[in-house]
Amino acid sequence: MIAKFKIDLDDVIAVQSFLATKSKFQRWNRLAISIVASIALLIFNMLVFKVNFITLAIVSAGFFYVSYNYIFKKAQINQAKRLAKNNPSMMNSACTLTVSENGLVRELKNSTNKLEWNEIKLVSEDEARYLLYMSDIHVITIKKNPYNMSEEETQEYNALLRNYFNQHNIATE
C-alpha cells in the first residue's frame, strides 16, 4: 500500500516533543542541565538572600522539577522551530510511504529510508500521525490521513499499520 503525505512543522514539533521525553540522551542531558541549574540557584540564594539551607533546598528542588519537566522540553521545541525557520526546505516535504509485510519504505526528496518491522522499538500516536521510534536519534513521522487516499482507503491503511505493529509486537502508546 502506498501513502503520500507532507511533513510539516507540526510533525517536526511532535517528533521533537516525543524525543524530549523518550530519548535516553535527552533524559541525561535534561537531568544534567537541571542539576546544574539547581546548584546555581542554591548558591545564588545562599549568597543573596542568606536564608537557611532547608528553605534553599526546597526552592532548588522546585526549580529542578520545573526545569526538568517544562523548560527543557519547551527549549527543544523552540530549537526545532528555529531550525525549520532557517531551513524552509525541510517543511512541506512530500513523502511517499510504501507499507508491506517486510516493513516500510519512506521516500523523501533527498533520501529513502527502508525500515524492517523489527527495527521499530516503539510507536506513539496522536490524532494526526504515528511516531515510529527506532533509536535516540531516529524517529520518523507517518501521517494517519494521506492525501492520496479516500476515507475507506485511509481506514484500511491505518488498520494495516496497526495490524503490523501488533503482529511484530511493537509497543504502542
Automatic annotation (TrEMBL):
It comes from the Bacteria. The keyword Transmembrane applies. Keywords: Membrane, Transmembrane, Transmembrane helix. Residues 100-161 form the YcxB-like C-terminal domain. Pfam families: YcxB. The chain crosses the membrane at residues 28-47, 53-72. This is YcxB-like C-terminal domain-containing protein.
